[in-house]
Design a protein that fits this description.
This protein has one helix and twelve strands; from the N terminus they run E-E-E-E-E-H-E-E-E-E-E-E-E. By secondary structure, the protein is mainly beta.
C-alpha cells in the first residue's frame, strides 16, 4: 500500500499499559467510526506496515485505546510511539452535497458564476488559518479561500467546484 492511496488517521501518542496497549490520537471529527477496525497501516521508516488490532475502545473523546497483535509489552510499544497511522482511502465515508475531502477535488475545475472557468485545482493548502484552493490558470497560480459562503456546489459528475467569488479576487492574479 502506498501513502498516496491512504489518508492520515492519527498518531500513536502514548503507552497505556504494561501489556503493550497504546493510545492513538485520532485526527477526526467522528472517532466512533474507527472503534472496530481490524488493522491499520503504521508508518515505520517511511514504509507503511500493516498492524492487526486485537481490541480497541474509545478513550476520552479523541483517543483510541488499542492492543495490537504482537505488541505485548512496554518495550515493543516504545518502538511504535510517535508513529503515524493510515487507512486506505476506500475506508473514508462517502460525502454528499457540498461536503468534500481535500484529496477528492484535486484535478477539479473551479468555475465562478460570474467569470466561468477560473482554472484547475492542483492542491489544497491547509497550513494557513483559512484553507486555500491552489488553482492553476495557464502559468498563473491563483489562491482561492475555501469559504462556505463562496461555495455554491460540488459537481462531482463534471469534476467542478462551482463558486460565487467576490469581484476582484481572481482578477488581481490575471
Amino acid at each position: 500500500m502506498r501513502k498516496e492511496e491512504c489518508f492520515y488517521l492519527g498518531k500513536i501518542a502514548k503507552k497505556f499499559s504494561y501489556k503493550g496497549e497504546v493510545l492513538i490520537y485520532l485526527d477526526t471529527d467522528e472517532p466512533e467510526l474507527y472503534e472496530n477496525m481490524e488493522s491499520v497501516f503504521v508508518e515505520i521508516n517511511k514504509n507503511l506496515v500493516p498492524f492487526f488490532i486485537e481490541n480497541s475502545t474509545l478513550h476520552k473523546n479523541d483517543f483510541l485505546r488499542v492492543k495490537f497483535e504482537d505488541i505485548d509489552n512496554e518495550e515493543q510499544a516504545d518502538e511504535v510511539l510517535g508513529c503515524e497511522l493510515y487507512l486506505p482511502l476506500s475506508f473514508l465515508p462517502k460525502l454528499e452535497g457540498n461536503q468534500f475531502y481535500y484529496h477528492e477535488v484535486i484535478g477539479f475545475e473551479i468555475e465562478d458564476q460570474r467569470l466561468g472557468v477560473v482554472g484547475k485545482i492542483v492542491s489544497v493548502n491547509d497550513s494557513t488559518a483559512q484553507p486555500l484552493f491552489e488553482v492553476i490558470n495557464g502559468t498563473v497560480e491563483i489562491l482561492i479561500p475555501m469559504i462556505d459562503q463562496f461555495l455554491v456546489k460540488i459537481d462531482r459528475e463534471n469534476k467542478k467546484v462551482i463558486m460565487n467569488l467576490p469581484e476582484g479576487l481572481v482578477e488581481m492574479y490575471l
